[in-house]
Specification:
Pfam family, one: PGK
Number of helices: 1
Structural class: little secondary structure
Distance between the termini: 34 Å
Strand content: under 5%
Order of helices and strands: H
Keywords: ATP-binding, Glycolysis, Kinase, Nucleotide-binding, Transferase
Family: Belongs to the phosphoglycerate kinase family.
Radius of gyration: 17 Å
Helix content: 10-25%
Protein name: Phosphoglycerate kinase
Catalytic activity: (2R)-3-phosphoglycerate + ATP = (2R)-3-phospho-glyceroyl phosphate + ADP
């Protein structure tokens, strides 16, 4: 199969607004909902 999917390398963001959505899937405490490790968030920054 040939997927003609564009990537970020095919996009010129100059002069444009960009919205980026990230799903970090961070571990949380089941009882409180508190994030137990921010390692994935920090690594992405």
């Amino acid at each position: 199969m040939n997927y003609n999917k564009k990537t970020v390398r095919d996009f010129d963001p100059h002069g444009k607004k960009v919205l980026l959505r990230c799903d970090f899937n961070v571990p949380q405490n089941k009882e409180t909902g508190e994030i137990t490790s921010d390692k994935r968030i920090v690594a992405a920054l």
